[in-house]
Design a protein that fits this description.
This protein is an all-alpha fold. It has one domain. The chain has eight helices and no strands.
């Protein structure tokens, strides 16, 4: 599907360039965009690799289990069924911790591991899986590392000056997301 979308976008761009007599600018703009995307990708690869490695070290050293015990009071209430699956629950705690540090991409493998542990075999998403998706999408970020590294990579001299805004908006989005999740669970559970 994404290849079809990209093909349509490229064809429409070329058609628009021919239609508005700007076809000569399409090639240089495409090359400039590709170079910028490559630079941005490389600037994000370092922190991503670092934090994926830290996640693996946490799992091997037993730190993930200690983290699970520390986050158990809060996450155990949000994910009561997963609480009884130690491997899945520790993956969930590592996922939440990575999101707190603003490492969305590095949190993904741990989130997938937690999501697999939540599966009930029916092929449909469970209520806990939906809550996990909402929690990951809205994610509270105490330290927006990925956004800061993107800003630093683009030349910002103060990449963390957005911290108060990020914290406030992420707290609000998580609260609203989880409230809506509960509301929809009750609405559809009664039917």
């Amino acid at each position: 599907m994404i290849s079809i979308t990209w093909t349509i976008m490229v064809v429409l761009s070329i058609f628009g360039g021919l239609l508005f007599s700007t076809a000569g600018r399409i090639g240089p703009a495409a090359m400039e965009g590709a170079a910028s995307a490559l630079e941005l990708g490389i600037s994000l690869a370092g922190p991503l690799c670092l934090w994926c490695g830290v996640g693996e070290l946490m799992a091997r050293s037993g730190l993930r289990e200690k983290l699970s015990r520390a986050l158990d009071p809060l996450l155990g209430r949000l994910f009561p069924e997963l609480r009884h699956k130690p491997d899945g629950f520790s993956a969930l705690c590592a996922n939440v911790t990575a999101n707190l540090l603003g490492l969305g991409n590095a949190a993904t493998p741990m989130g997938i591991e937690a999501c697999r542990a939540m599966a009930d075999g029916s092929g449909a998403a469970t209520a806990e899986q939906c809550r996990l998706v909402v929690l990951n999408t809205a994610s509270i970020q105490l330290l927006p590392s990925t956004v800061a590294s993107v800003r630093a990579g683009l030349g910002c001299s103060t990449p963390l000056d957005i911290l108060p805004c990020v914290l406030l908006t992420s707290l609000c989005s998580v609260a609203v997301g989880l409230l809506m999740c509960r509301f929809l669970e009750r609405l559809f559970h009664d039917r």
